Amino acid sequence: MRTVTVEGVDISIIGLGTWQFGSKDWGYGDEYASNEAGAIVQRALELGINLFDTAEIYGRGNSERILGQAIEGHRDQVFLASKILPIFPIPPVVEQRARGSLRRLGVDRIDLYQVHWPNPVVPLKLAMDGMRKLLDQGLIGHVGVSNFSLAQWKKAEELLGRPVLSNQVKASLVDRKPFAEMLDWAQQHDRLIIAYSPLGQGLLGAKYDAQHRPSGPARAMNALFLPENLERAGPLLQELRQVADAHGVSPAQVALAWVISHPNVVAIPGASSVAQLEANAAAADLVLDRAEIDALTRAAERFEPTRGLAAAPALVKGRLSRA
Ligand SMILES: NC(=O)c1ccc[n+]([C@@H]2O[C@H](COP(=O)([O-])OP(=O)(O)OC[C@H]3O[C@@H](n4cnc5c(N)ncnc54)[C@H](OP(=O)(O)O)[C@@H]3O)[C@@H](O)[C@H]2O)c1
User: Fold this and answer.
1) Which of 23, 36, 199, 273 has most ligand 1 atoms within 8 Å of its beta carbon, as the pocket-test mutant?
2) Which residue range(s) make up the domain with 34?
3) Strand ranges (E), the chain
4) Any idea what the CATH number is for the domain that residue 88 is in?
5) Looking at the 3D structure of the chain, how many domains does it have?
6) For residue 215, which of 67, 77, 92, 184 sits 20 to 30 Å off, Cα-Cα?
7) Which of 14, 16, 18, 19 is the pocket-test mutation for ligand 1 (most atoms within 8 Å of CB)?
8) What percent of the chain has pLDDT over 90?
9) Is residue 256 domain-resident?
10) Is 269 close to ligand 1, i.e. is its CB under 6 Å away?
């Protein structure tokens, strides 16, 4: 497995996202939580993946519990990342939340502890004071942030007085803003961008269309899966299929290869099966040429989904009709 090295740490270019583990948001059910999830982690370890991403909020702690059990006996192979839910991130709360995650994960150290979102009310200094204390106690190895703008990332680093190793942001062919905003800075400063939802929550697997939409609350609330947007995504998905056919791989693998073609970027796709995990891991070795990358970017630029406030009425209507 190819790795990206930042601050002397080797991180697999494809990691594993585990929001799906034990969470009702994805609707994968009990069998997935109690068997498939563990098998996905085992296979990921065999394939050389070391970055495993979870959060205290995923399945209200279930994801951390499932992941913790699955990595038992393999701790030295894992770069373990979790996130604090920053409701009131003052130092004693930060420590209490971290100790809760450590307990659920069954480890004595979290390698990368990330602030899940910026808190618009509580000054960032307080969260960073708490994080510094965790570093000093050896309870965490590195500090990360998530969903931070570049300015907020720099501020966090200044307040911590130490490197904030990574920013985990939504980044894929359908969410390209982070590449333009923070790639140069990450490269210049030996920092990492962790791309979440690198498959657009499965849209870029090219198996969904207006007549075949995914189930589960997470994607019911994702405007990309509105029928009109699935229609509009047609040409982008077609471009993905074309490049995939040329390489004898799947559209999802091409979408991941596009993400990790950017320097200082790793991707953490979730997986609903071991087969998907294997395909995603194999994408680490798929190299697209410049013309393919540009053609995909152009196709992505032409895809203009309805999003944000404009999509809200359709999302609410869809939710009500499913209820
Ligand atoms: N920091 C944050 O705020 C934040 C937010 C969201 C996510 N995350 C993290 O990022 C991880 C990944 O993001 P995500 O789960 O939102 O989206 P994603 O990785 O883009 O999509 C995951 C889904 O895509 C489908 N898929 C995966 N591999 C595939 C393949 N090879 N071929 C076809 N379909 C495939 C699966 O769904 P189906 O098979 O059911 O279609 C899977 O559940 C999460 O698990 C979590 O750890 C972080």
Assistant:
1) 199
2) 3-205+262-288
3) 3-6, 9-12, 16-17, 51-53, 79-84, 110-115, 140-146, 164-170, 192-196, 265-267
4) 3.20.20.100
5) 1
6) 67
7) 19
8) 93
9) no
10) yes
